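Hi V.,

Quick status before I head out on leave. The structure for the redesign project is tokenized and pasted below; the design run finished overnight.
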């Protein structure tokens, strides 16, 4: 199936560059372009993935991300930014974004990022270290009182796997550590995501830090 993408960036030249890269692929297509957050929200229902700039006029990318993720469960938001260490990036993750990339990444990374996010994976730039994620997501101001209650619904194995996911391990890495098959790890993780109300791996990471499970 073709992955449908909306490009949201206030610079037409950047949108044109992304479109040119995407049009080299048979499995990804651009279905719309937005010059601000308002347009991004309007176009989001057509998309599987929205490539979202943070700083845009009328409505910023953070607000647009929150609106899109609240309204459209099937839509994934991938933040594109020049400021990979910006606090807004982490606020975007809390708002429901599935990950982010720096605008200086190569074409191959852009395409792979779209595919990963469309497939439900979390995508965090190598510069988004665990310590920085912890710094922003573990702030008391963002702790949800319902989060610890949700964690109590998990089995010991599911809790263990959520902890590994929050530390950045892939399903294959987790499988190797726990002497399980990757398919079994995926099954446990999917069950944990349902119990936690997490839309993808990025949200699992957010919940793990918000609850204090991982610091």
């Amino acid at each position: 199936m073709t992955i449908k993408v909306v490009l949201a960036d206030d610079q037409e030249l950047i949108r044109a560059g992304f479109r040119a890269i995407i049009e080299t692929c048979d499995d990804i297509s651009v279905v719309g372009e937005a010059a601000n957050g308002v347009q991004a929200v309007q176009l989001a229902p057509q998309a599987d993935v929205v490539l979202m700039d943070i700083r845009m006029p009328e409505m910023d990318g953070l607000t647009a991300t929150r609106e899109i993720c609240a309204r459209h469960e099937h839509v994934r938001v991938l933040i594109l930014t020049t400021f990979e260490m910006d606090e807004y990036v982490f606020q975007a993750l809390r708002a429901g974004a599935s990950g982010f990339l720096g605008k200086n990444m190569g074409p191959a990374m852009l395409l792979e990022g779209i595919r990963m996010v469309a497939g439900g994976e979390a995508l965090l730039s190598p510069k988004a270290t665990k310590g920085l994620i912890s710094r922003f997501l573990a702030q008391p101001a963002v702790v949800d009182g319902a989060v610890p209650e949700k964690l109590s619904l998990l089995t010991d194995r599911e809790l263990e796997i959520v902890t590994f996911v929050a530390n950045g391990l892939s399903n294959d890495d987790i499988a190797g550590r726990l002497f399980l098959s990757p398919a079994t790890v995926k099954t446990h993780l999917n069950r944990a995501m349902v119990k936690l109300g997490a839309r993808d791996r990025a949200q699992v990471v957010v919940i793990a830090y918000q609850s204090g499970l991982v610091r």
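Above is the designed sequence. Confidence is low (pLDDT under 50) at residues 126-132.

G. will cover questions while I'm gone.

Best,
W.
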